[in-house]
Amino acid sequence: MTEQQAGPGAGPTSAADTTGSAPAQVRRVAATSAIGTTIEWYDFFIYATAAALVFNSQFFTTMSAASGTLAAFATLGVGLVARPLGGIVWGHFGDRLGRKKMLVLSLLLMGVATVGVGLLPTYGQIGVAAPVLLVVLRLLQGLSAGGEWGGAALMAVEHAPPGRRGRYGSFPQIGVPAGLILAQLVFLVVSNLTTPEQFAAWGWRIPFLLSILLVVVGLVIRLRVEESPVFAMLRQSRGRSRAPILEVFRHRPRELVLASVSFVANNAIGYIFLAYLLSYGTQVLEVPRNTMIVVVIVGSLSWLVSIVAGAVWSDRVGRKRAYLVGSVLLVVWPVPFFLLLDTAGFAAMVAAVVVLTVGLGLSYGPQSALFAEMFESRFRYSGASFSYAVGAVLGGGFAPLIAAALQQGYGTSMAVAAYMVVVAVISLVAILFIRETHRPDAPARLS
Q1: Would you say 222 and 32 are in contact if contact means Cβ atoms under 8 Å apart?
Q2: Which pLDDT score is estimated for 214?
Q3: What is the C-alpha separation between 46 and 184, in angstroms, rounded?
Q4: Do residues 157 and 165 make contact, with C-beta atoms less than 8 angstroms apart?
Q5: Which ranges of 318-436 would DSSP assign to H, the alpha helix?
Q6: Per-residue pLDDT tens for 240-253?
Q7: Phi and psi based region of residue 178 (left: phi greater than 0; alpha: psi -120 to 50; beta: remaining)
Q8: Contact criterion met (CB below 8 Å) for 370 and 319
Q9: Are 339 and 327 in contact (CB under 8 A)?
Q10: pTM for the complete prediction?
Q11: Rounded distance, CA 331 to CA 335, Å?
Q12: Could you give the angle at which helices 289-317 and 367-374 cross, rounded to 10 degrees?
């Protein structure tokens, strides 16, 4: 069945259009996906770190400390709101013009927005224009992130051999914890090399300005990889969709909904870990900032390892089973997570984040392969990117803000734990309804 003939009755893995690229090219694409998404997410996460540590005093100085923190987390969520639009735009042109071109453009846009934050005057310098411009730059970051993941995931998965799509699809996934580790390390170094006054005055800008160097490196790497063989075949056979987002809504509405909801818990709990945890530890538990940064780094390493393990395991047992194990862990762990955190002991906090990130990794590692296998190639970029972006908005966009509000409103971390359990159950139900896309005994080819 050709791309022109494939219709709503044709499953996402109904026809063979690739057997994977040459091994050397597959490895190059995998490395490029990991490095590129690490740079993208470094840019995205230094904003989250700065929102937790300094934005309340730089851009919301007329508010109380608690209100300023809430406002800073609100700007964090604004970037997530822009992601579905980014998913639609990047998905459309990624399905029409190619995966590679959109990945280069997304990296450029993210770099411009990030450096812009580093150069942005504070509220004390230009007044209300400062937080307004901060929101605009965060929106640009959101637009970029909305298309980044889909392109990187599809490049890795569509180049991979059929039996190893989970393994190679994990490379763009590890960009999330790797970017977070890099962001935390840079903030840790800058924090140790500056006084608290220097850090508040100008030190926090350094991680944003360093993005210039990282973006240049990322562009050089991305320009050297070949286009996805799946898209190359689509272009050759003239099988590209003229309106991919409309087609995916028409032919795969069930997959769009289930994929989006399945990502809600992972994103919400992930953002509580990477953004809210720093604020909670330093402001509520009064743990030293550098100690909390180290805890987050250890958890990020555990997250990274778990992503790879979950992705490789999904090649052996199926995407759905790996997803379910991680999702069940996210349901049962939030209460013990906060009970351990609230001891404020270093070992207990590390144990809390390690177990949490294992759940995050097992339910995130197989995602690239799963989402790619759920949608046909002619609208795959649109379907995968839009599902990912909507799940991010529903789950992660305002999770740190909600967590901070629950903590302030109820005065107990158990309120935040209950919120985490609720979103985890919602995603678990969605995952139960997803059809398995990978049979280890007979790996399907992407269509």
Answers
A1: yes
A2: 84
A3: 8
A4: yes
A5: 319-332, 334-341, 346-362, 367-374, 380-395, 399-410, 413-433
A6: 777 888 898 999 99
A7: alpha
A8: yes
A9: no
A10: 0.81
A11: 9
A12: 50
DSSP letter for each residue of 243-276 = SHHHHHHHH-HHHHHHHHHHTHHHHHHHHIIIII
The gap from C-alpha 91 to its chain's centroid, in whole angstroms, comes to: 16
Q: What pLDDT is attached to residue 20?
A: 53
**Token output for 11:** 């499953």
Q: What is the DSSP string of 105-161?
A: HHHHHHHHHHHHHHH---HHHHTTHHHHHHHHHHHHHHHHHHHHHHHHHHHHHHHS-
Burial 90-124 (b: 16+ CB within 10 A, else e): bbbbbbbbbbbebbebbbebbbbbbbbbbebebbe
* Whole-angstrom distance, CA of residue 142 vs CA of residue 358: 26
Q: How far apart are alpha carbons 366 and 311 in whole angstroms?
A: 4
Spatial separation of the C-alpha atoms in residues 72 and 148, rounded to whole Å:
24
Q: Which amino acid is at 324?
A: L
Looking at residue 128, its pLDDT comes to 85
Query: What are the C-alpha distances in Å from 113 to residues 52, 79, 176?
Result: 19, 11, 18
Residue the block writes with tokens 């530890």: 281
Using only C-alpha atoms, the chain has a radius of gyration, in whole angstroms, of 21
Alpha-carbon distances of 175 from 36, 219, 235, 358, rounded to whole Å: 8, 16, 29, 16
Q: pLDDT digits over 99-113, tens only?
A: 888 888 888 898 899
Report the alpha-carbon distance of residue 112 to residue 256 in Å, rounded: 31
Task: Calculate the alpha carbon distances from 64 to 57, 59, 61, 68 in Å.
Answer: 9, 12, 8, 6
